[in-house]
Amino acid sequence: PEGPGSTMSSLRNADPALRAYFKRHSLLDVYETLLCGVFIMCPEDPLKFLEEKIREIMENGLDGILWDTCIDSSLRPKLKRISETYLHILFGLNDEQLMTDELCGKAWNFYSKNLKKVYFQEWMQYCLLQKNSRALVKRKMAVAAAHYDTRITRVVVQKWRAWVQFRKEQIALAAMRIQKVFNDSLHKIILRAWHAEAQSSAKTKAYFERLVKGDQEEYFDKQDDVQYSSTSETVKDEISNIPERAVLQIFHYINLIDLARCAQVSRTWMLLTQASSIWTDIDFSSVKHKMQDKTLINILKKWRPYVVRLNLRGCSSLHWPSFKNISECKNLQDLNVSECQGLNDESMRLISEGCPALLYLNLSYTDITNGTLRLLSRSFSNLQYLSLAYCRKFTDKGLQYLGSGKGCHKLIYLDLSGCIQISVDGFRYIANSCSGIKHLVINDMPTLTDKCIQALVEKCQQIMSVVFLDSPHLSDVAFKALAECKLVKVRIEGNNRITDLSFKLMSKSCPQIKHIYMADCQKITDVSLKTISPLKYILVLNLADCVRISDAGLRSFLEGSSGTKLRELNLTNCIHVTDTSLMKIAQRCHNLAYLNMRYCESVTDTGIEALGNMTSLISIDISGTTVSDMSLAALGHTRRMKELSVSECRKITDMGIQKFCQGAKDLEYCDVSYCFQLTNETVKALAFNCHQLTSLNIAGCHKMTDLCVQYLSGVCHYLHFLDISGCVHLTDKTLKYLWKGCTQLRILKMLYCRNITKQAVLKYSAKLEKQEYNDADPPAWLGYDSGGGVLSLNKKPKTGPEKAKALYQNENKEAA
Q1: What are 450-464's pLDDT values in tens digits?
Q2: Which domains can be identified in the chain, with CATH numbers?
Q3: Nearest-CA neighbor of 681 among 212, 270, 213?
Q4: Digit-coded pLDDT (tens) for 319-333
Q5: Contact indicator for 283, 258 with CB cutoff of 8 Å
Q6: H or E segment at 695?
Q7: HSE-up (13 A, CA, CB side) for residue 521
Q8: pTM given for the model
Q9: Which parts of 221-299 are beta strand (E)?
């Protein structure tokens, strides 16, 4: 059966007429009276009890019915719901009262809360209704505003669209006219450029054809006459059209002799050469063999207030008067007196008195003593860069002076190369005096030991770069001390005591290192490369002559954090490196610009061909390898190649050079020495395609003739260096062609050239800065005689892979 809850809920949802009937006849009150009577009286026969009570209610009516009507008076509760009068409360006669003060308070609170709740709910409903009304009005207004804006925008857009359509038609018409004019102008420019290129190509082709026919000498004479006649007829100063600042910048880079010649061209040029900005930096080293005291004194007397940098390297003819005038240059900051034989302690005293602002001082290869070092600490308190390389006359006592007086406490660069007289105490004095050193160079010092480095590093904790070339007695102990300095650059060469431990220390303590140069360190293995693979900033890695390096170590390094950032890699004489490493290089090293695989005999065409897709590659050296023309053809695809060295590559022919040159138009340096199969066609291809060539080495190419030099002299006008040693078929005509065509040639090597006479060398080499010449027979190890004939037996000193392999085998025998 359903409970009362369900009954009440059904009454709430009942028909309104039924509910009115219940209310009109007070059925609920009757039910309450009957139920209370049954519950309290507990009759034996409930039905009979209910029947009697219903008759009584019907007889008495419903007006006086209460909840206790059906209960006997003896069982009714005696407490009253409320006092009859206020006197009952005053006299305490309301003990039987049902309603107490506490109950009244609770009832009042309950009633108040219910009333507040009802009012609050009604108020909330009212507020929500008002809020919804306002929101509805706001939405309607927004819709109306949007509709209005849309209508206005539509009208505006229609008018704007019509205007834009009109403007587009006008612009299209104007663009068609401009495009027509542009196309006409572009066609004219293209035709002029094509015409000029065609003329240049035709001229070059005719030049080479004329060379083949053999009438080049007559052509040179004609061209000479035309050149001189044209210059005499139309003399025009093109530099006068360049802005004055640009001309001054150009004059800043030429040497003193050329500057003096420029001053004689015109009055304008003479005034430009007298600008003070040109004379702030004076370099006398380019004319060191011609420098005398008188010349230097005259120049410094005129320009001493402006001189900031002065380079006297190699000026051995200067004496006390010159150094006296140098001391009058009060603003001098950079002084290089390297190899000045006239420099002594007295000269340095004059300079120290007059040049207190000196920051850079190079005293290498001079005869200074402890007295000069004492002057440095007293007068040059701001000195930052100091070179004492190969100064053998000062002692440890002199180094102790560096800390006296004002001291050289700001020194950050120190070069002590070749100073074998310095002991451990000397390095300790340096550490006490110059604790801020950041760059340390100590080359050619066999007396340098681990204790020296430990004494120096004990207080010089800011060292960032070290260079130790040919210091064989250093070991991992020294490197352990240096690793605490957070090195960025390390250069060590010719050391057999440094092991993989140094690389481990480097990886642990030098996370910012960028430059690692560990050449000819025989105990370095693949473990070293695996150790430094986590380093993130390595840009230069040089492991030349480290014969234990193999593909496994390189793979670990290249797959590390620095593989994609590497810019320079040198693996000369690493005989265990194969094509596998080159393929990994091509895959990972997208920023590699300089690659040296010299004497890596395991490298073949397969590996070099993989490098053909590296557009970042600028310089490559594969000398002494077994590569052929296929490798050169692949390297020609890089398009950015500027330096190529394929010396001693016996399989390379003219065809390979020709294919390479077709893609390497910007080539500046080329070394094809001792490639015996090359002929004049190689130089022809270089001259025809690579007009920017500045350095060429064809030593040992015995098939070359004067014709190859004619090719160069006619086209390669920027050539600075040329080595033709061992080219036995070259004659005096070679020098004549070079003298007329290669006017910028500075260095020329002509060893074992029997057909070039000494008289011709003296005649045509006056413009050269350096030359090497002899007319001796070619040595037997070249493999041919003075006539170019191939010798059956040739003994050549062990170099390259032969030397590396022999050394590696000897070490293995010793280990066994």
Answers
A1: 999 999 999 999 999
A2: 12-76 (no CATH), 275-358 (no CATH), 360-463 (3.80.10.10), 488-494+501-624+800-816 (3.80.10.10), 627-791 (3.80.10.10)
A3: 212
A4: 999 999 999 999 999
A5: no
A6: strand 695-697
A7: 28
A8: 0.70
A9: 281-283
